[in-house]
Amino acid sequence: MSETSIKAMLEFIIPRLVRMLMDKHSMTEKEALIQLYSSELYRQLEREDTKLWHLSVPTLYDLWLEEKETGHITYPEEA
Q: What one-character-per-residue DSSP string does the chain give?
């Protein structure tokens, strides 16, 4: 998948993931964006070779939450 295609996928995924962070953690949009963009999950999501962009938003949320709670991410086998 090209870099342009990954960016297009992220433009679809990120707003939904940010909304989930806002809803579940009573964050403002700015807080949710800062939390997401500063995460290792986001850095890995941007990399085509991780294939994380194909996971569902709830699964990505669970990975983000795991990172926040434990400091690491257990990637699903399908990723």
A: --HHHHHHHHHHHHHHHHHHHHHHHT--HHHHHHHHHTSHHHHHHT-GGG-GGGS-HHHHHHHHHHHHHHSS----TT-
CB atoms < 10 A from the CB of 52, how many? 22
Q: How far apart (Å, rounded) are the C-alpha atoms in residues 10 and 73?
A: 19
- Locate the domains of the chain by residue range: 3-70
Place of tokens 């962070």: 21
pLDDT in tens, 18-59: 999 999 999 999 999 999 999 999 999 999 888 898 899 999
Say which residue the tokens 């090209």 belong to. 2
pTM over 0.70: yes
Q: Which amino acid makes up residue 24?
A: K
